[in-house]
Amino acid sequence: MFIENKNFFNHGNLEKWKNILNLLPESNSNFIDYTSSQITLGEKFSLTPAEKKNLEDLLIKLSPWRKGPFNICGIDIDSEWQSNQKWERVKSFLPNIKGMRIGDIGCSNGYYLYKLLDFNPELVVGMDRTALYIIQFLATKHYAKKIQNLLTLPCSVEDYNPKIMDFDLILSMGILYHAKNPVENIDTTRKLIKQNGFLVLETIISNQGENINIKNNETYAGMKNIGTIFSKNNIINLLSASGFKNIELVNKSFTNTNEQRATRWMEGKSFKDFTLPSGYTIEGYPPVCRVIFIAQKK
Fold first, then answer.
1. What pLDDT, on a 0 to 100 scale, did the predictor assign at position 4?
2. Structural domain boundaries in the chain
3. What is the CATH number assigned to the segment(s) 82-297?
């Protein structure tokens, strides 16, 4: 279905990553826990000490681990993002998704896909164009073989054909401000959702009452490929114009170094390197504020 996705299949590290997947030691444990802050796959004593050391070495080679945390057969993957904090902000506002088909756009390595399983969905489908994140998901899924209603696709929302399958609920978290064409991104996302289905939109917002437009080759809090940081009202207008109703801002928070930081699993620069003691970004923008919108397709 996505065999022509050159971003994935022509990646220079793909063969190296596939070899890592093939070398992952087998565990005799089917233990899975996605109810705690960590996604736990396999028991710590299901591998010998040598196998466990080998597994840790292999997983480190798949760094950087942006989303998590995970615990795989007793190995703690301390990801850059403590994604459980965002999940706690999101989960209380999800509709009753039991038996639903759910899509997660820009799913990264699938942390939220696992968390969604706690709601007994029919199917959870993640989409991400970053090849490493798909490989990381496959590494975790190696230890969650009994889960059959969870998969990822190496694509963006623009690549996905809604004729294949539509969804009762779509999560779009941390995507809108990266979109080259935000209007198209929202419209394309809406087409994937069933009538009266739901969108969870998590994004950075401008608290200045007007949009922040980032010029080409410039950064926002150290992030590249940022387009527009919308104001609250302009996001509502975007969603409404696209065909959403019952639009509600349900959460607002400021990113900090407890939620996003460098670790041995992501040794590059992180949030503290791109913000000032005042909370402003190194580029001079106000503190990074994230919001969560819930909207329903008309």
1. 59
2. 82-297
3. 3.40.50.150
